[in-house]
Design a protein that fits this description.
With 326 residues, the protein is mostly beta strands. Helix content is 4%, strand content 44%. A hairpin with a 2-residue loop joins β7 (81-90) and β8 (93-101).
Length: 326
C-alpha cells in the first residue's frame, strides 16, 4: 500500500477523483441503467425511485408500492416504509428485492417484485410483487433478514446476500426463478463482527455490520459492507469496508489477509468534516468505469442523508476512492 501512495503523489488527483454530488435525499441507494436512463431505488415509503440521464440531475418518480398486504400481516406496525432495495436484471425481467422490518429488531423479511421495464411511461411498466423470500424471527434466528443484494456467480448460480448486526452477513442460494430459497438450502456466514456474548438475542447488539453488496470483477468477488452506525444524523459513524474472495461463498479476506467472518475488512471510505458518515453502498459500471454509489450525512445540512457517487480506482486488485477537496 505504501508504494501505491507514493505513486499517486506523483500524479494529479484529478486523474483519480471524480465526484457526483447531488442534493437529493436518499438512503441506501442502488442504481441500474436501462437504455439511456439511470434508475435509482432507495429506502422510503413504498420504495422511493428516481431517474436521471447523467447521474447528476434527478427526477423523482412515483413510489413502487402503494401497499404491501403480506408485509402488514408479517411485521407488526408496518406502515409501508420499505428498506434497502436491490435491483438487477435477469431473463427479460427486473428484480427488485426489498426489506420490511421493525427498527432495531430482527422482526424482518425480504420480499421481491418484478417488472418488464423501469420506465414509468412504458405500457409494460408494472411491478408484480411475489411476496416473502426470507424471514427472520426474534428468539429463533441470530441474523436479520434486511439489506438484500442479489449476485450471480461465474456458473450462473443465483445467490442472495443480506444481514445486519446479530451474527452478521449471510449468503443463501436462490432458486432458478430468483423468487425463493433453493432446496436443499445452502447458507453461509460471509462477514461478521465480535458481539458481546452477554447480550440477549432479542436485541441488535454491538456487532455493527450491515448493507452487503457483492461485485464481481476480474478473478474476484468483492464484498462491500458498512461498519458502525447509520441513521443518526451528525452522530452517524458509518464507513464502508471491503474484502475479496475467489469464490462467491468466501472466505472473503481483507488486504491484510484477515477473514471478514472473523471481523476483517479494509476501509474503502469513511466520514470526514464534510460528511459525518458514509455507507450502505452499491457498485455500478458506466462505460467501463466503476462507481461507488452510497449515502452520506451532510455536515453542512444538519446531517441529512444525501446521494453520493464516487469513481472507483483499482490498485493491485483493491478499490481506492479519492475525494476531491471541498
Amino acid at each position: 500500500m505504501k508504494n501505491i501512495v507514493f505513486f499517486l503523489c506523483l500524479l494529479p488527483l484529478q486523474q483519480y477523483a471524480q465526484t457526483y454530488q447531488t442534493n437529493i435525499p436518499v438512503h441506501d441507494p442502488v442504481m441500474i441503467k436501462q437504455d439511456s436512463t439511470w434508475y435509482l431505488f432507495c429506502t422510503g415509503r413504498g420504495v422511493s425511485e428516481w431517474s436521471s440521464k447523467d447521474m447528476v440531475n434527478w427526477k423523482q418518480e412515483k413510489q413502487v408500492f402503494d401497499t404491501l398486504p403480506w408485509a402488514v400481516k408479517t411485521i407488526p406496525g408496518f406502515r409501508n416504509h420499505v428498506w434497502a432495495p436491490d435491483i438487477s436484471y435477469h431473463n427479460g425481467l427486473y428484480y427488485l428485492y426489498y426489506a420490511v422490518s421493525a427498527f432495531g429488531k430482527n422482526t424482518s423479511a425480504i420480499g421481491v417484485a418484478t417488472s418488464k421495464t423501469l420506465d414509468p411511461a412504458n405500457a409494460n411498466y408494472k411491478w408484480t410483487d411475489h411476496g416473502k423470500v426470507i424471514q427472520s424471527v426474534p428468539g429463533r434466528d441470530m441474523w436479520n433478514a434486511i439489506d438484500p443484494n442479489q449476485i450471480t456467480d461465474e456458473k450462473g448460480v443465483q445467490w442472495l446476500a443480506f444481514g445486519s448486526f446479530w451474527n452478521g452477513i449471510k449468503l443463501v442460494r436462490l432458486s432458478n426463478d430468483l423468487l425463493s430459497v433453493s432446496e436443499p438450502e445452502q447458507w453461509y456466514t460471509i462477514a461478521s463482527r465480535s458481539r458481546n456474548a452477554v447480550l440477549p438475542d432479542s436485541v441488535a447488539g454491538d456487532a455493527a455490520i450491515e448493507g452487503p453488496f457483492i461485485y464481481r470483477k476480474d478473478n474476484y468477488y468483492y464484498l462491500f459492507v458498512s461498519f458502525d452506525y447509520c441513521c443518526r444524523g451528525e452522530k452517524s459513524t458509518y464507513k464502508m469496508m471491503v474484502g475479496r474472495s475467489e469464490k462467491v461463498t468466501g472466505p472473503y479476506v481483507d488486504r491484510d489477509g484477515v477473514p471478514m467472518n472473523l471481523g476483517g475488512g479494509s476501509t474503502v471510505l469513511e466520514g470526514d468534516k464534510n460528511w459525518y458518515g458514509v455507507g450502505h453502498n452499491a457498485v455500478i459500471n458506466n462505460a467501463g468505469t466503476d462507481y461507488l454509489v452510497f449515502h452520506g450525512y451532510d455536515a453542512k445540512d444538519n446531517g441529512r442523508s444525501k446521494l453520493q457517487i464516487e469513481k472507483i480506482n483499482w490498485f493491485n486488485g483493491w478499490p481506492v476512492i479519492f475525494r476531491r477537496p471541498q
